[in-house]
Amino acid sequence: MQEVPSVPLLRIDSLRVESITPTSAPPFLQGINLRLMPNEILGVVGETGAGKSLLARAILDLLPEDLRVTEGEIFSRERPLSRLSPAERRAFRGGEVALIGTNAKELLDPVVTVGSQLVRVLRSHHRVSRREAWARAVSLLAEVGIVNAKERAHAYPHELSGGMAQRVVIAMSLISEPKVVLADDATLGLDATVSVQVLDMLVERTRKMGVSVILITHDLGIVAHYCNRVAVMRSGRIEEIRDTVDFLARPDHRYSQDLLEAAKARPIPWVRSIGKADTPLLEVSNLVKIFPGKRPGEEVRAVDGVSFLIPPSETLALVGESGSGKTTIGQCLVRLLQSDSGRVLFDGQEITTLSEARFRPLRRRIQMVFQEPYVALNPRWRVRHLVDEPLRMLDKLTSAERLKRVHGMLELVRLPARYAELYPYELTAGEQKRVGMARALISRPDFVIFDEPTTALDIRVRAQIIDLVRQLQSDMQLSALFITHDLNSVRSLAHNVAVMNRGRIVEMGSMEEVFARPKDPYTQKLLAAELGIEGIHGPQGSAAAKKKGTVD
Amino acid sequence: MSRIPHSLRSPAAVIGFALLFLQILLILFAPLLSPYSPVEADALASLQPPSAAHWFGTDITGMDVFSRVIYATRINLLISVVSVAVAFLIGVPLGLFIGYYKGIVSSLVMRLFDFIQAFPIFVLGMALVAVMGQEIWNVAIVLAILFTPVFARLIRAEVLSLRERPFVAAARCSGASDLHIMFGHLLLNALLPAMVQVSISIGMAILLTAGLSFIGAGVRMPVPEWGLMVSSGAQQMILGVWWVSLFPGLAIVFSVLCFALLGDVIRDLLDPTKTRRAVSTSTDIIPGIGGPL
């Protein structure tokens, strides 16, 4: 804070990063110009492959071996990095610029206690005694919000939850008091409420310590709530770099506009069939699923007496955080898991007690779209075989007829027919997701379970998938169970919402009702943790402000 | 040229394929290449050192070592390839089943494998030969029994992790039966390590065939077989008669080397990191990188 504001902490001048082997491919990064001022939080957004992570690695001078900087320079407080000696470079990494990576559990050394890992970082940058370093580590762990830090410092990484591990990684990056923190998708994969806590804590700590942050993310909500300025990256270039509030109000570039548009919720098509409340298609009552606990004799009630019903051509969203039991319900419905008690009536027929052979004909009518697009497709099968598998199991069709149906399905999910001959690894994540949908829909089901259809997708791809599902809902009159933790997508897709917490439904009602007037404290907490991009008119800094606004 | 994968142009691959090609030539054209009959004794020409007439010399009964080394390629590779093929054909489906079904039968099969693999191979060989006689096929049976657990275990280990993958759950949701999941989905994904093992096992089988014959639990004289030839020459070794054992010994070395090298080549060809790279380029340039530094 004592620094003269006109000297940027980090300056990047027309940076260009290319592959060592000469190729015709465009450079990985080009024409990057960036200034990071003291006490600034700069958001870097972009889709997969835009070069965000590569930029962070270039700043740390840790490019992959086959890439190098071919043009431009990075200055740290006006010192060019390329002139640093190897020893100075080591001091620079972690000493002046620290990185917070994604997936904290994998970043921590599994055989060393977290306290010692912090001590290791501190002692490699500052001359302090082991005892003092330990004391600093413990106090920093407490400051980043780890309860009982004194004992937790002796814990091994596997004993921590994902959120705790992420806090430890943040503490590790802060312990040697760097000037700049690079947070590379630091909260990816954490639950929304945890993610908000972690980000709040990070921002608060960096404010207090006078640290500048480059927040790399693909989530515009995070940018809107935490960043002073935002840089939009696309295929190795910075498209625009502006003040966040201006950016949200009037993005300059076409691409930025697309991104913002894609991140907004769409009003739900109200296809509720005209007063047809006669028989629900699916009726679940008192469903219970118990898993054995860690110790013998212990049991975990993953699904604890859940009841709901879904009328024909309506969508129910099951929302909740990880471990709430929502995916378990989906798996019980398609009989991947055997429920312990309760009834599931599908079209008036009890399905939990059917034998697998009797249930098989019903599988055509109940399909599931799986969560991870890549791992849910057999890597050694071509798309046409992946898509027509349900048909082969259920119908006696010639292969020409099947191929015709496959092409029809691919068209429906907006994939070119030539994709039928490709393998999953040749597709992007969004395309894989579409293949997963084509596969579930080819048997013309009445009821589809979508398990997290929008997670781990880029902003625009996510919007395309949402539009696709909306289209399918209205075209095919599908009934659907929509399992997600992405509240924003619920706004666009579901008629009704059931909020789950620890195996129970804590609140259920129409989407508008639940989102506008949440009654249960847990629902309120979930909604408060949502980082939307709409209705942001001033610099907010942290989600705390918004929380006060909604839960008044 | 550029379409040939890099791993096929490495020195190991070139030497491996050259040796394989040489062995195939020897097997196909043994009668043309060998100057004498491999089994006809000539008492007058006993224990002659290598010369223009007998390139590798003769053994104690006067049989031409060069001709016998060539003919033995047939016997040795026949036994090895057949035994490994049988082990592969039995072991792979067995591995699929015991990996897919976790039950008492699977546990029993695994314990049986433990027993087979703990049993000394040479004792097993001698026991079988004692019961069934000194036949070529007995050696092949011993080796097939020995290698079946190897393939079954490899497949089982793969299946154990594959069966928990979401694409298996997805298949089940589309109404796939257990058999379809096993042979349609799991087999192809689980096969790679077993493919590498095939080549390595053939090399080991050659070595074990020779070993069994050497201790007298393999084929019988005068069948041309490398291990038996080394064994018959061993008695005269101290008299300075080195050629009777040396040349079949070298044949064993090169043959085993060939299949070991080819095993490495297969591994490189099917290297999972290559597929992973292909995946990552389609979705992301740089996967998540290192931690706080």
Automatic annotation (TrEMBL), chain A:
<dbReference type="InterPro" id="IPR003593">
    <property type="entry name" value="AAA+_ATPase"/>
</dbReference>
<comment type="similarity">
    <text>Belongs to the ABC transporter superfamily.</text>
</comment>
<dbReference type="InterPro" id="IPR050319">
    <property type="entry name" value="ABC_transp_ATP-bind"/>
</dbReference>
<dbReference type="Pfam" id="PF00005">
    <property type="entry name" value="ABC_tran"/>
</dbReference>
<feature type="domain" description="ABC transporter">
    <location>
        <begin position="10"/>
        <end position="260"/>
    </location>
</feature>
<dbReference type="InterPro" id="IPR003439">
    <property type="entry name" value="ABC_transporter-like_ATP-bd"/>
</dbReference>
<dbReference type="GO" id="GO:0005524">
    <property type="term" value="F:ATP binding"/>
</dbReference>
<keyword id="KW-0067">ATP-binding</keyword>
<feature type="domain" description="ABC transporter">
    <location>
        <begin position="282"/>
        <end position="527"/>
    </location>
</feature>
<dbReference type="GO" id="GO:0015833">
    <property type="term" value="P:peptide transport"/>
</dbReference>
<dbReference type="GO" id="GO:0016887">
    <property type="term" value="F:ATP hydrolysis activity"/>
</dbReference>
<keyword id="KW-0547">Nucleotide-binding</keyword>
<dbReference type="InterPro" id="IPR027417">
    <property type="entry name" value="P-loop_NTPase"/>
</dbReference>
<protein>
    <submittedName>
        <fullName>Peptide/nickel transport system ATP-binding protein</fullName>
    </submittedName>
</protein>
<dbReference type="Pfam" id="PF08352">
    <property type="entry name" value="oligo_HPY"/>
</dbReference>
<dbReference type="InterPro" id="IPR013563">
    <property type="entry name" value="Oligopep_ABC_C"/>
</dbReference>
<dbReference type="InterPro" id="IPR017871">
    <property type="entry name" value="ABC_transporter-like_CS"/>
</dbReference>
<dbReference type="GO" id="GO:0055085">
    <property type="term" value="P:transmembrane transport"/>
</dbReference>
<dbReference type="GO" id="GO:0005886">
    <property type="term" value="C:plasma membrane"/>
</dbReference>
<keyword id="KW-0813">Transport</keyword>
Automatic annotation (TrEMBL), chain B:
<feature type="domain" description="ABC transmembrane type-1">
    <location>
        <begin position="73"/>
        <end position="263"/>
    </location>
</feature>
<feature type="transmembrane region" description="Helical">
    <location>
        <begin position="12"/>
        <end position="33"/>
    </location>
</feature>
<comment type="similarity">
    <text>Belongs to the binding-protein-dependent transport system permease family.</text>
</comment>
<feature type="transmembrane region" description="Helical">
    <location>
        <begin position="240"/>
        <end position="262"/>
    </location>
</feature>
<feature type="transmembrane region" description="Helical">
    <location>
        <begin position="136"/>
        <end position="155"/>
    </location>
</feature>
<dbReference type="GO" id="GO:0015031">
    <property type="term" value="P:protein transport"/>
</dbReference>
<dbReference type="GO" id="GO:0015833">
    <property type="term" value="P:peptide transport"/>
</dbReference>
<keyword id="KW-0813">Transport</keyword>
<dbReference type="GO" id="GO:0055085">
    <property type="term" value="P:transmembrane transport"/>
</dbReference>
<dbReference type="InterPro" id="IPR035906">
    <property type="entry name" value="MetI-like_sf"/>
</dbReference>
<keyword id="KW-0472">Membrane</keyword>
<dbReference type="InterPro" id="IPR000515">
    <property type="entry name" value="MetI-like"/>
</dbReference>
<feature type="transmembrane region" description="Helical">
    <location>
        <begin position="112"/>
        <end position="130"/>
    </location>
</feature>
<keyword id="KW-1003">Cell membrane</keyword>
<keyword id="KW-1133">Transmembrane helix</keyword>
<dbReference type="InterPro" id="IPR050366">
    <property type="entry name" value="BP-dependent_transpt_permease"/>
</dbReference>
<keyword id="KW-0653">Protein transport</keyword>
<keyword id="KW-0571">Peptide transport</keyword>
<dbReference type="GO" id="GO:0005886">
    <property type="term" value="C:plasma membrane"/>
</dbReference>
<keyword id="KW-0812">Transmembrane</keyword>
<feature type="transmembrane region" description="Helical">
    <location>
        <begin position="194"/>
        <end position="219"/>
    </location>
</feature>
<feature type="transmembrane region" description="Helical">
    <location>
        <begin position="77"/>
        <end position="100"/>
    </location>
</feature>
